[in-house]
Amino acid sequence: MDQLTLGIGTRLQHTQYGPGVIVGVRYASYLVSFIHHGIKEIDKNDSHMDEIIPEQVTAELETSADVEKSLLRILRLWNGTSEVVPLSDRWTGGTLLLQPADKNQKPKEIPIDAFFHKIVMLRDRLRVLEQQLNAHKQLSDEEKVNMQQYITRIYGSLTTFNVLFRNKEHWFVGEKGGKED
What we know:
181 residues, alpha+beta, two-stranded antiparallel ribbon, 4 helices, 19% strand, elongated
């Protein structure tokens, strides 16, 4: 075993201390947390140490981006945290102009970045509402499905704003997008 390549989280078996996990890596040693002996500093070339390789390990195909998305979903569920969603490049620095039909009234000009931020906040709050609805303990499944249909229709009504998003993964998706082909 080439012990210079082991990293934090690697499980080990030591003849003197038993099973443990690497919790720190130093130049010539590992900090290993042993179940029955606490944290010990072990030389990287210690011959009494072997890596434990689990027998039934499946190859995980999750990328760091997948892990990040999962974490963001959890944070949104429990904290209402919103993710950073990039505005499409062609709109950056632009303005939204609301022109009244009456030419005697002044038009309203809004920075598109501010408008986009409000759209993203609306989307994030809809997602949190959807998660809270699905997790609600007192609603029946039928009630949840009925309310979920309204949320899906709201997403569908907001698809016009998808043109503002840089990445398609951030788009609003209504009923058509939810059905499998």
